[in-house]
Amino acid sequence: MASRKPLVMGNWKLNGSKAFTKELIEGLKTELAGVEGCDVAIAPPVMYLAEAEAALVGSKIALGSQNVDVNVKGAFTGDISTEMLKDFGAKYIIIGHSERRTYHKESDEFIAKKFGALKEAGLVPVLCIGETEAENEAGKTEEVVSRQIDAVINALGVEAFNGAVIAYEPIWAIGTGKSATPAQAQAVHAFIRAHIAAKSQAVADQVIIQYGGSVNDSNAAELFTQPDIDGALVGGASLKAPAFAVIVKAAAAAKA
Ligand SMILES: O=C[C@H](O)COP(=O)(O)O
Known about the structure:
Blueprint (H helix, E strand, L loop, with lengths): L6 E5 L6 H15 L6 E5 L5 H7 L6 E4 L16 H6 L2 E6 L2 H6 L4 H14 L2 E6 L3 H5 L3 H16 L8 E4 L13 H16 L3 H6 L1 E5 L7 H5 L6 E4 L6 H14 L2
Parallel strand pairs: 1-2, 1-8, 2-3, 3-4, 4-5, 5-6, 6-7, 7-8
Helix pairs in contact: 1-11, 5-7, 7-8
The protein binds glyceraldehyde-3-phosphate (G3H).
The site of glyceraldehyde-3-phosphate (G3H) has 14 residues, from β8.
């Protein structure tokens, strides 16, 4: 089995300001100095990519974004392109977050198009998938995550997951303080990897599968003991440098 370097990514969502961006990144640079063994990325609001790019100079923390649109240029009011993200040095791009699926009615097929646009541009898709509480209680978790993954496989082929990231985020765990247990998350992560392995073992072995949903400085270490949890996509706890650093260090230690 290929060894996978964990990735911990902060999704700042709709939070921050120019000053906050600078301050948080300075804090992260201090807290994470000398930490090896875990890739780290942050996704501030796109409004603050310029401040973030400048503040990250000299740091190994990668820049990301919380969304992208499918068109590269032209009359698409309000859209943001892959090329614009590249212009700011962004690398890891979150797509299909449940908040976009819910509030902006993004479909599996539309998200697969975004995945393709990112691959074409040489950017790393961070594909969010996960079930609602009702789907979970109805025993539909595997059906839902399969459908969300298959939309990409059907459009682009399983090889599209080479070098890509999947973030399994059960919707009932997002921002609720009610994280999935390590065993619950591991079971779904193993299912996702096996689902991809049915098409290509090699692709499944290398794909990073992050867990997301109320990850914090107290529960991260135990989540990372699970073999198929390759890091985390962190919301609330990514807004404080010390808490986020604890999560990064826990991933580095667990996967060393
Ligand atoms: O993208 C991050 C997730 O939605 C998790 O957010 P949270 O850590 O605030 O629960």
